Amino acid sequence: MPVQILKEKFTGTVQEVVLGATKEEGGTRSNTVKLGGSSTLPFLQYEGDIPNRPVIALEVLDIKPDWGEAFEPYYGDVWSDPAAWAKKTEELGADVIYLKLAGADPELENSKSADECAKIVKAVLENTSKPLMVEGPGHPEKDNDVLQAVGEAAAGENIAIGLAEKDNYRSIAAAAMMGKHCVIGRSPVDINILKQLNIMIADMGVAPNKIINDPMSSGLGYGIEYSYSIMERARWGALIGDKMMAFPVVCLAGPEAWRAKEAYAPLEEAGPGWGEQKPRGIMWEAMTAASLLQAGGDLVLMRHPEAVKLVKKHIDDLMKPNLY
Amino acid sequence: MGLTGLAIFKLLPKTNCKECGVPTCMAFAMALASGKATLEQCPYVSDEAKEALESATAPPIKLVKAGAGDNVLELGDEQVMFRHDKTFYHPTGVFIEVADNADVAAKVDEINGLVFERVGQKYEVDGVAVVNASGNADTFKDAVATAAGKTDKVLLLVSEDAAAMEAAAAGLEERKPILYAANADNYEKMVEIAKKIGAPLVVKGKNLEDVADLAGKVGYKELILDSGERETSKVIADLTQIRRQAIKKRFRPFGYPTIAFTTEEDPYMEALQAQAYVSKYASIVVLKTTELASLLTLFSWRSNLYTDPQKPIAVEPGIYAIGEVTPDSPVYITTNFSLTFYTVQTEVEATRLPSYLIAYETEGLSVLTAWAGGSFIGENIGPWLKDSEINEKVNHKQLIIPGGVAAIKGKIEELSGWEVTVGPREANGISSFAKLKLGA
Ligand code: B12
Ligand code: SF4
Questions:
Q1: What is the pLDDT of residues B258-292, one digit of tens each?
Q2: Nearest 5°: CA angle at B201, between B199 and B207?
Q3: Closest C-alpha among B78, B106, B103 to residue B90
C-alpha cells in the first residue's frame, strides 16, 4: 500500500545564533558554535533542515559550589579556580563554557565586585578556547554592574550574557549590545512572557541573531513536563512563522536535575528501587537533558562528565539522517 | 474529526420511522455526528453503512487491550500530537525481554521484583517479552509457560515462526498475551492464532509501506504496528508518521498502537533511546536492561509526559499525621501539589520526629507558584489556621513554613495568632532544621 509521507508545511525557521569569535573575527576562540537554525521539529530531518546539532555547555562557578561528593572526583581539584575549572570542562567535552558568577551575590559575605568578576572572565577566556556564556548572580542591581563589566572585559569575544528578565532586561540587553555580545532572555515557564520579553529586547535594537532564550527548565520528576510543553509550543510557534518565538533555547538540565533527591541521595537515604547513587545521579541528569532535547533544546547545560558522554552519544544517534 | 451529519445521513435508510427515538433520520444523523447517539439505536442500518459509519466515527487510533485481571494494559486511543493540545492518555507500556534459552524463571523473578517508589507514585514493569532466541519451538513453549506461571504481567510472545507461536500461545486465552509478529510471509497463520485466543497481534513490516499494507489486509483489528526500523532517528520518524497520519489524515492502516524495540547495548544509552520512543509516541517499548537507574528515570519521564497538563496531580487537602503524633508534635505547612507534598512528607518522615503536616489547598500548585498566584499567602492561610482543627490536635501554636515564602510569616501571625518559624528553603534542609531547632 503506497504511503504518502505527511510533511508539515512550515514557513518559519529557528533563528541561528553564533556564539564566540575566532581570531579572524576579532576574538580568541578556537571555533564558534552555532545554535538553532532548524526549519523542522526536533530531529525530523525529513521535513526540514537541522543545520546545527544541539550542543552541550558545562557549568563553571566562580566560587566553590555545594555540589557534594558526586562531583568531587571530577572538579574537586579545580573548583576554587574558575579558569582551571573552565579548562577542565573543555577537556571533559564542553562545546561551550557556562560561567555562573554566583560569588557576586550581594548577600554573600565576601561578595565579589564587578571588577573582580571581569578579571575572572578574562582569566577564563585566556585559559580556554571554547565560546563562553556568563550568568550574573541573579540579583537585579548587581547583575547590571557585573554584566556591564563582564561585557567590556570580553569585548570582541561574542559571549552570551544573562539573565535578562522581564523586569531587568534593559541594562543587560544594553550591555550586550555595547560589547556586541548575545543576550540570554529568561522567562518563567510562560509562553506569553517568553514572547513579550523577546519583543521588548528586540525593540531595544538587539539584533535577532544575538538573542537566546532560557524558558526556564525544571528537572526530571519535578515539573519538567511544564518546560517540555512550553518548549514544544515555542518551537511550533517558530516554525509557523512567529519570529518572536524563534530564538534558540537553552535548557538548564544539570542544575535542575541535581536539585532532585533522586539524583543526589546516597543509598542509605534512597527510596525503594532507586539503587546506587552514582548511576542514578548520572541518569537523572542525562534523562533530564535527553527529554528536553526532544522538545527542541538547542543547548543543554550539564554537570556530570558521565552524563555528558551519554547525551553526546545520544545526540549522535538522533542526528543520523532519517529522510524518506 | 468524524463524519459530518450530512455524510452520515446519506448512509441511513431515510424512512423516518422514529424507532431510534428521534423524529427523523436526519436528526439521528446529527445526534450521531455529535456523539450523542450510538449506531445500535437504529435497527435498520445496512451492514455496509455500519462498516462505513463505524470506521468514520471510530477514534483515530484504536484502543487495544492486552493482559488480564489487574494487569490489563490499554494501548493507543490517543488524540493529539502534542500533550499541550490536550493530553496523552495511555502511558507507554514498558516491557523487558527474556530469552527463551536463558534462565527464564530467574529473569522473570528479577523483573517481578522491580518496583520503584517516589513522590507517592509506584512504578512497575508492565510486561515480559519472551523471545524465541533459541529458534526452537519446544524451548519457546516451555519458556512461555514458565513465564506465565511466574508473573501476572502482560506477556509478549516474540517469534515469527508461526508453528512455535501456535504451540506457545495455546492455552493462554485467559492471559490475552501480545503476539509478535505477523509479517508478509506468516500473517495468515498468525492472524488465525491471534483470533483463536483473542490476542492483540503485532504486524511487522520492512518499512512504513509494508506495515500499512499488512495492517490493511490482515482482516483483524486487534493490531499493534512495528515498521521494522531499528535506528533511533528513523524509528522516531516512523512513529511520528504513524501517529500523524492516523490523527491528521485518519489513514486507517495506521490507526493502531505502536511498538518499539531498543538496540543499544549499554543500559544507560538504552534508557535514553527508550526515552526518545516514549516521547515520540510508542505505545510499547521493549528493553533488555533491568538496571535500576535506567528504569527509574525512564518511568519518571513517562509519568511526567503523561500527566494531564490541565490538572496538576494533587493530594487531598488536610492535616496529615506523620508517625505517632502527640499534642506536642511540631506542625509544618505545605501545599497540596502532590509533588511538593510528597517531597516534604518524605523529609519530615526522615526526621523520625512525629509531626503534623498540613496540605493546604492550592489546587495542586507548588509553593512558589501558589504564592505568586495568590493562594498560598498569609491572607488565606491566617484565617484558615485560626479556625482549623489543628488547634484541637496540638497544645501549642507554632507553625513551620517553607523558607521560600518567608514573606508570608507576618500576615499569618497577625491573622491567626500563631507564631511562625521560617523553615529551610528546600525540603532536604528539614532534617538538619529539625535536629537544630526541634531537637529531633
Ligand atoms: C512548574 C511551574 C509552574 C507551573 C505550575 C506547576 C504547579 N503544579 O505548581 C505553571 C506553569 C502553571 C506555573 C504558573 C505560574 N508560575 Co510558576 N513555576 C514553575 C516552576 C518551573 C517549578 C515549580 C515546581 O513544581 N517546583 C517543585 C516543587 C516541589 O517545589 P516547591 O513546591 O516550592 O517545594 C519545594 C520547597 O518550597 C520546599 N518546601 C515545600 N513545602 C515546604 C514546607 C516546609 C515546612 C519547608 C521547610 C519546605 C517546603 O521543598 C520543596 C522541594 O525542595 C517554578 C520555577 C522553579 N524551577 O522552581 C516556577 C515559579 C514557581 N513560577 C513563578 C511564577 C511567577 C508563576 C506565575 C505567577 C506566572 C508565570 N506564568 O510564571 C504563574 C502562577 C499560576 C497561578 N495559577 O496562579 C515564579 C515564582 C516567583 C516568585 N518567587 O514569586 C517561579 C519561581 C519562576 C520564576 N523564577 O519566576 N508555574
Ligand atoms: S431508526 Fe433508523 S431508519 Fe428509523 S428514523 Fe431512526 S435513523 Fe431513521
A1: 999 999 999 999 999 999 999 999 999 999 999 99
A2: 175
A3: B78
User: Quick one: average pLDDT of A72-92?
Assistant: 96
Is A222 in Cβ contact with B339 (below 8 Å)? yes
CA-CA-CA-CA torsion sign (A284, A290, A296, A299): positive
Secondary structure (3-state) at B356: strand
Helix B137-150 crosses helix B104-112 at what angle (to 10 degrees)?
A: 30
Looking at residue B2, its pLDDT comes to: 58
Kindly report the backbone phi and psi dihedral angles of residue A177, in degrees, each rounded to the nearest multiple of 5, phi listed first.
Answer: -60, -45
User: How many angstroms separate the alpha carbon of residue B366 from the centre of ligand 1?
Assistant: 5
Probe residue for ligand 1, chosen from A226, A228, A230, A258 as the CB with the greatest number of ligand atoms within 8 Å:
A226
Residue B143 contacts residue B116 (beta carbons within 8 Å) = no
Lowest mean pLDDT among B22-31, B197-206, B380-389: B22-31
Q: What is the DSSP letter of B40?
A: G
Answer yes or no: do B279 and A262 touch at CB < 8 A.
no
pTM of the model: 0.90
Task: Provide the 3-class DSSP secondary structure of residue A53.
Answer: coil
Mean pLDDT calculated for residue range B380-404: 96
The pLDDT of residue B1 is: 41
> Does residue B308 have its Cβ closer than 6 Å to ligand 1?
no
- Return d(Cα A26, Cα A20) in angstroms, integer: 10
CATH level 2 (architecture), domain A17-318: Alpha-Beta Barrel (3.20)
**Reduced to 3 states, what is the DSSP secondary structure of residue B243?**
helix
- For the stretch B54-111, pLDDT in tens is 777 778 999 999 999 999 999 999 999 999 999 999 999 999 999 999 999 999 999 9
Beta bridge partners of B422: B401
- Cα gap B383→B371, rounded to integer Å: 16
State the CB neighbour count (10 A cutoff) for residue B411.
16
Q: How big is chain B, counted in residues?
A: 440
Enclosing H/E stretch for B419 = strand B419-422
Residue B333's DSSP bridge partners are: B358
Find all residues with CB under 8 Å of B19, minimum gap 6, and list them. B42, B43, B44
Closest residue CA from atom 19 of ligand 1? B369
- As a whole number of angstroms, the distance between CA B347 and CA B430 comes to 6
- Whether omega before B181 lies within 30 degrees of 0, making that bond cis, reads yes
What whole-number distance in Å separates Cα of residue A96 and Cα of residue A56?
A: 6
Distance (Å, whole) CA A88 – CA A76: 11
Spans of all domains in chain A? 17-318
Task: Tell me what percent of the residues of chain B surpass a pLDDT of 70.
Answer: 99
pLDDT digits (tens, 9 = 90+) for A104-145: 999 999 999 999 999 999 999 999 999 999 999 999 899 999
Q: b vs e for A272-303, b when ≥16 Cβ sit within 10 Å of the residue's Cβ?
A: ebbbebebbbbbbbbbbbbbbbbbbbbbbbbb
Question: Which backbone phi and psi does B397 adopt, to 5 degrees?
Answer: -130, 65
ipTM confidence score: 0.93
Write out chain A residues lying below 8 Å of B275, CB-based: 287, 290-291, 294
Nearest protein CA to atom 53 of ligand 1, as residue: B426
